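Quick one:
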Amino acid sequence: MTTASIPCRNGVARTGTGLAIIRPVEPIAPDHLRHFLAARDIPCPACGYNLRDLAIDHCPECGEALFLAVRGLHEPTGPALVRLLAAALPLGFNAIFTAIGVVGAAFSHSWRPDDWLLVGMFGGLSVVFAGMLGRVQRTMPRFRGRARRNQWKRALGLSAIAFLIQAVAIVFMFIVR
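Output:
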């Protein structure tokens, strides 16, 4: 069974099966929801609360109504991929420049003090983009539950922010050099 999800406006909890807890959609009988949650650690799509052995049809933590539904066959990947790459590509770029700088410092006889400033800048940007990538991965289930148009808006916004941060760093690099 595939693990694609029904496009919906709100959260989707990934379960690894063909079923998912989602909201709102045409529900399957509430008894099926209780049976599904009886032996699984499934997070609430709204707040992340563990719904294992839940006997009611709403989250006790945030009050969100829960339904059990069959996932669709196709899950849109475009905005999620753009969002992931917006953090991963600059992370790789900055990590490579940091590594080149450290190796260059070890073997170069003409290393200047402001070269360390650039290595530190690229290292710091690596940490920033690693944090951004971690946040992108942690919030992916909630992101996928948003309306498609909202997904694109957020993905392109994150891409623009990442591009601006990187562009400022590159301009700074040429000013320092």
